[in-house]
């Protein structure tokens, strides 16, 4: 097994301030960045704060930025870097910092609460749900989301514009709206809730300019932009900008039901 | 002592995994004001790691399935040591719990007629596991999380406050359960982010903190699994049951070292993956124990036919219960037929086309691709046993999930003992979380309601207990350093070092194969670590300080490790997740024996105990006989293999 | 209200607008250069009003040709919808449709928002703008009419298909011949169709809007096919952009006499 000494710069500090701190640290074969952060913790900086949990890319806790790119610490192998390269690790830069690599991701939990939940269909009891695989495929892709919030972090709408945080739910939660709108048994529409419309009016779908950074960073390789955001935009167009649909719904005097 | 913030709730749930969230949902729906407190962020609990599925006898794929068959499989898997009433309730209620998830928005994989698809798994007679690819745990946790959010949305509409009736305290740790007399009165907690202490006052506390895997070096468990709930219950005076039974999952990754232990789901075998040694032999055929001889294929041809025609063929031995497979792999490696990195080969690449593998095992494909640079569609995986689950846990009443001896304390999920006996079947964990999580929430809410009426009186949190708990939690900041002029005085211990030593000791000495002398050594090592842990010191301040958190968790890991070692030393037989090299056979006389661990110091103190004797007392207890109608589900010939003579003729 | 981006007071104190060490600027720079080159070329060709017809080939920039000042093309798509009052290049009448289609295309939007407007220049690289309202307001809210440009793009592609059929004639309008230009036209029209059908709006109309695929098996199949094309939408966008420019350039070369169209048969 070959090991070498790598150079790391890790951001340390809190909301009052801080900076990049240098570390020289041993790296062994097959290790990931999180292993190195842990080694720094165990040998050089026992109070270095880092959020992590499963260490297998399944929980989405250890989100940070490595050489300026939003990534999971546990899924970034050291072998992708040159040995002589200095590796810079910082906390997510779209959210308020708490300490060292830990940020306050409360924004995401607040946004999660603003998306109306699944509406169960009337007249179907537990055990009576029948859904075909091809009808659940789309929403299942979105439910692979591990809520690492890397997409929320990289999205320039909020990353570069703090003031947009109130109006914009971010890719993860717009995708949640898409997931529910594509759920074959979601009865939101029957209950008077138009998810297509609220996506635009309440969750800020229009802020998205489909520049696809969310898709680029997704560790689950969910095609957020092509499969969730753009289809959602198209669904909003159906509702708001398509005169034919508008006319049709006027003539038939009812909103067009689920196809 | 500074004034500690107090908040009043009806039910406090410790842990936000499947069991905790299900308990919280139930308690809130029963009208209890409920707080959930968890060490990680909301939605990150260890449940997300579960891959295979939720076992529930819905009979969607094979209509021959029903709760009786599920019950039978569970008891066989647990080698008849299960708390049978729990196994019965579990088998009966699991389907309802799964269907209920659908009404909350879960999207399971479907059968061709639109029902929930079910897959085969080790030890289950029929395809029984409701699943979503190989990320079922994520689906479960996300569904429960979203259900909680939907309840909060309802509360918001009514009260203007999302958290008026159901609140999640994320990234907080409970260090002590508070009591008034024998009854639970609340929980002492700290916020990891700020280090701030606070007390949640509540007559009911549901413990659902999961397992203990972080006491072992090679484990599939995350950092959270430090046995907190086990220790909290012990310290509150509740006994732990059968802690010697620790499940080593047969297939964990063995390479590279940094991911050693990470789970390779059993679905790989359920979907056709086979185990081979370095000689290319499917060795599992040599390891079918007598009790399972009639149930498993005797030839590779028959085993292969079973995937297509399960009604006329027996299943391949790769799908034996986990303890059998783990032991077999261990033996093969020991006999020198292991893979280059000390495991065996698990191969799907020669069994299924690449696109089928990628579709059915997407996370496994990614896990190996990204962590080990192995393409499982082209080459075999290297796997070996990894500490996965503890069957032992808090002793509970089967119907109510109430911990024994401590009114107001409830336990559900992995932290509760009894349900799985000596070995858990894959898929029975997620259903356990839902069935008993719901029951714990229900009874916790009822119990709390009984104390909030006119006659009832809520127990109070005592200031002295709060101060003691705060002092205990702050101890690592004032660890004794070297004292000038005093001989033998040493610098504070590094908690990371202590943790590594503990993991190594448990792995080597109380691991998958156990020997008397080694376990005695382990107990000595634990005593030494316990003394040193009292001097574990940390630098820095209380804000998100991982060294401090670990120093506090060490107390729990040491307590739980001692329980495992003591119980393992006591049980002189091999059964399920407990294998003794010096007592290799299962002993029918032990079937009726439960081992209960209790704190030596009944006041819950830790300081005064003698380092050699340790902190744990063991009590033997004879189990209640299995109800005759349940016994009648088995053939007599099968029962004689498990039950003691006198049980058979009672 | 708090404002600002990565240097906002609550965020980790890092002064650099980004810490990326790779060549993140390369992709937006190449995109900008590529688009700019096309804009310059197509502007020149659209306004030039010459050398766009060399029997049997008509430049895709000038088809259909709808003014009286169009060059006569036998059987070609030139109808004098616009009378003699139209004095500008007839390309301008028609080009608005493919131009609008591409301008509102979800891929091109990404490309020019990144390449020209630096919003953002690359992922996790701070953008230079103080304010950002995305596509919520005029004029960018008009991006939502992409679907109508798709509706318009389909007949345009149909006419270009017709032109391609006509290109199987020789310069004397005799059928059954094929030159290098015919090949250029065939390749171009295949790419145009692939790009047009791989459009996100098309994917939505074909099947994406449905809630239950299981009740519409044919549209489901079609949606899957369009989805497969849609995966390559970016590639098709560039390929068809280049091919349409090449097809025009080929006609220019032949019409201006700089090149003689080699015939295969």
TrEMBL record, chain B:
MF terms (GO), sorted A to Z: steroid dehydrogenase activity, acting on the CH-CH group of donors
Q: Which domain of life is it from?
A: Bacteria
Q: Which InterPro entries match?
A: FAD-dep_OxRdtase_2_FAD-bd, FAD/NAD-bd_sf, Fum_R/Succ_DH_flav-like_C_sf, Fum_Rdtase/Succ_DH_flav-like_C, SdhA/FrdA/AprA, Succ_DH/fumarate_Rdtase_cat_sf
Q: Which residues form the Fumarate reductase/succinate dehydrogenase flavoprotein-like C-terminal domain?
A: 499-597
Q: Which cofactors go with this protein?
A: FAD
Concerning Gene3D superfamilies, the annotation shows: FAD/NAD(P)-binding domain (3.50.50.60), Fumarate reductase/succinate dehydrogenase flavoprotein-like, C-terminal domain (1.20.58.100), Succinate dehydrogenase/fumarate reductase flavoprotein, catalytic domain (3.90.700.10)
The alphabetical list of record keywords is: FAD, Flavoprotein, Oxidoreductase
- Entry protein name: Succinate dehydrogenase flavoprotein subunit
Gene name in the database record: sdhA
């Amino acid at each position: 097994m070959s090991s070498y000494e790598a150079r790391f710069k890790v951001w340390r500090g809190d909301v009052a301030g801080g900076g990049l701190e240098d570390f020289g640290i041993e790296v062994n074969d097959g290790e990931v960045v999180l292993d190195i952060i842990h080694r720094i913790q165990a040998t050089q900086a026992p109070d270095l704060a880092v959020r992590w949990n499963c260490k297998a890319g399944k929980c989405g806790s250890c989100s940070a930025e490595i050489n300026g790119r939003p990534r999971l610490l546990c899924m970034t192998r050291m072998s992708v870097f040159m040995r002589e390269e200095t590796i810079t690790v910082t906390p997510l830069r779209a959210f308020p910092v708490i300490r060292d690599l830990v940020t306050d991701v409360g924004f995401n939990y607040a946004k999660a609460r603003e998306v109306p939940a699944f509406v169960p269909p009337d007249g179907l009891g537990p055990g009576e749900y029948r859904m075909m695989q091809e009808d659940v495929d789309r929403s299942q892709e979105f439910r692979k989301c591990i809520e690492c919030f890397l997409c929320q972090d990289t999205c320039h709408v909020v990353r570069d514009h703090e003031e947009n945080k109130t109006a914009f739910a971010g890719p993860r939660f717009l995708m949640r709206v898409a997931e529910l709108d594509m759920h074959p048994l979601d009865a939101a529409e029957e209950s008077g809730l138009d998810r297509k419309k609220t996506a635009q009016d309440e969750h800020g779908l229009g802020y998205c300019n489909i520049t696809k950074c969310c898709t680029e960073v997704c560790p689950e390789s969910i095609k957020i932009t092509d499969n969730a955001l753009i289809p959602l935009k198209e669904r909003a167009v159906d509702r708001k900008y398509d005169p034919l649909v508008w006319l049709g719904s006027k003539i038939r005097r009812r909103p067009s039901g689920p196809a | 002592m500074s004034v500690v913030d107090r908040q009043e709730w009806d039910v406090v749930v410790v842990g936000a995994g499947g069991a905790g969230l299900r308990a919280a949902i139930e308690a809130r729906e029963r009208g209890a004001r409920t707080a959930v407190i968890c060490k990680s962020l909301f939605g990150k609990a260890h449940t997300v790691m579960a891959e295979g599925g939720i076992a529930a006898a819905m009979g969607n794929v094979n209509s021959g399935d029903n709760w009786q068959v599920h019950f039978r499989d569970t008891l066989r898997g647990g080698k008849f040591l299960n708390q049978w009433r729990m196994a019965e309730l579990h088998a009966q209620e699991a389907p309802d719990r799964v269907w209920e998830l659908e009404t909350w928005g879960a999207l399971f994989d479907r059968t061709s007629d639109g029902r929930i698809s079910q897959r085969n798994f080790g030890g289950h007679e029929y395809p029984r596991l409701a699943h979503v690819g190989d990320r079922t745990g994520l689906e479960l946790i996300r569904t429960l999380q979203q259900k909680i959010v939907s309840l909060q949305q309802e509360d918001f509409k009514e009260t203007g406050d999302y958290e008026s009736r159901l609140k999640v305290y994320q990234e907080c740790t409970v260090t002590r359960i508070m009591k008034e007399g024998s009854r639970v009165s609340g929980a002492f907690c700290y916020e990891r982010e700020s280090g701030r202490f606070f007390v949640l006052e509540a007559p009911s506390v549901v413990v659902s903190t999961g397992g203990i895997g972080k006491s072992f070096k090679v484990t599939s468990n995350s950092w959270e699994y430090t046995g907190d709930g086990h220790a909290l219950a012990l310290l509150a005076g509740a006994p732990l049951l059968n802690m010697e039974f620790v499940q080593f999952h047969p297939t964990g990754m063995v390479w590279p070292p940094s991911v050693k232990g990470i789970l390779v789901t059993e679905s790989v075998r359920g979907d056709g993956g086979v185990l081979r040694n370095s000689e290319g032999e499917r060795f599992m055929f040599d390891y079918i124990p007598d009790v399972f001889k009639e149930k498993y294929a005797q030839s590779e041809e028959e085993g292969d036919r079973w995937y297509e025609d399960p009604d006329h063929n027996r299943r391949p031995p790769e799908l034996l219960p986990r303890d059998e497979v783990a032991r077999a792999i261990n033996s093969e490696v020991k006999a020198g037929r292991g893979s280059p990195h000390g495991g065996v080969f698990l191969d799907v690449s020669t069994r299924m086309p690449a696109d089928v593998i990628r579709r059915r095992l997407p996370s496994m494909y990614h896990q190996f691709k990204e962590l080990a640079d192995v393409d499982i569609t082209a080459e075999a995986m290297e796997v070996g046993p990894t500490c996965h689950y503890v069957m032992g846990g808090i002793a509970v009443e089967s119907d109510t999930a109430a911990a024994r001896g401590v009114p107001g304390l409830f336990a559900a999920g992995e932290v509760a003992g009894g349900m799985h006996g000596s070995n858990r079947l894959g898929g029975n964990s997620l259903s356990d979380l839902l069935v008993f999580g719901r029951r714990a929430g229900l009874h916790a809410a009822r119990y709390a309601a009984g104390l909030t009426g006119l006659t009832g009186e809520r127990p109070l949190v005592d200031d002295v207990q709060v101060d003691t708990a705060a002092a205990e939690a702050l101890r690592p900041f004032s660890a004794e350093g070297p004292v000038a002029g005093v001989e033998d005085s040493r610098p504070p211990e590094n908690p990371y070092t202590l943790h590594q030593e503990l993991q190594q000791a448990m792995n080597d000495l109380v691991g998958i194969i156990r020997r008397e002398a080694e376990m005695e050594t382990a107990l000595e090592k634990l005593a030494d670590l316990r003394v040193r842990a009292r001097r574990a010191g940390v630098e820095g301040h209380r804000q998100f300080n991982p060294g401090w958190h670990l120093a506090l968790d060490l107390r729990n890991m040491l307590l739980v490790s001692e329980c495992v070692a003591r119980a393992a030393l006591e049980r002189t037989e091999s059964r399920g997740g407990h294998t003794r090299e010096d007592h290799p056979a299962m002993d029918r006389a032990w079937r009726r024996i439960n081992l209960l661990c209790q704190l030596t110091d009944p006041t819950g103190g830790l300081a005064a105990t003698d380092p050699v004797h340790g902190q744990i007392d063991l009590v033997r207890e004879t189990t209640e006989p299995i109800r005759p109608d349940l016994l009648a589900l088995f053939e007599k010939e099968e029962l004689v293999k498990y039950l003691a003579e006198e049980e058979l003729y009672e | 209200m708090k404002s600002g981006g990565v240097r906002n007071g609550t965020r980790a104190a890092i002064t650099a607008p980004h810490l990326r060490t790779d060549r993140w600027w390369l992709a937006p720079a190449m995109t900008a250069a590529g688009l700019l080159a096309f804009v310059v070329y197509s502007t020149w060709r659209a306004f030039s009003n010459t050398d766009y017809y060399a029997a049997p080939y008509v430049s895709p920039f000038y088809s259909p040709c709808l003014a009286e000042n169009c060059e006569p093309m036998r059987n070609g798509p030139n109808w004098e919808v616009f009378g003699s009052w139209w004095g500008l290049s007839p390309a301008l009448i028609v080009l608005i449709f493919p131009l609008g289609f591409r301008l509102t295309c979800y891929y091109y939007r990404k490309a020019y928002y990144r390449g020209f407007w630096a919003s953002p220049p690359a992922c996790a690289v701070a953008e230079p703008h103080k304010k950002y309202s995305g596509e919520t307001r005029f004029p960018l809210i008009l991006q939502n009419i992409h679907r109508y440009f798709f509706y318009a793009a389909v007949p345009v592609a149909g006419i270009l298909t017709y032109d391609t059929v006509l290109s199987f004639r020789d310069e004397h309008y005799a059928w059954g011949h094929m030159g290098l230009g015919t090949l250029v036209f065939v390749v171009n029209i295949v790419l145009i169709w692939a790009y047009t059908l791989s459009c996100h709006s098309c994917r939505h109309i074909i099947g994406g809007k449905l809630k239950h695929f299981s009740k519409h098996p044919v549209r489901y199949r079609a949606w899957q096919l369009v989805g497969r094309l849609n995966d390559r939408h970016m590639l098709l966008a560039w390929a068809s952009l280049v091919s349409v420019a090449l097809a025009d350039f080929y006609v220019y070369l032949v019409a201006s006499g700089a090149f003689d169209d080699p015939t295969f048969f």
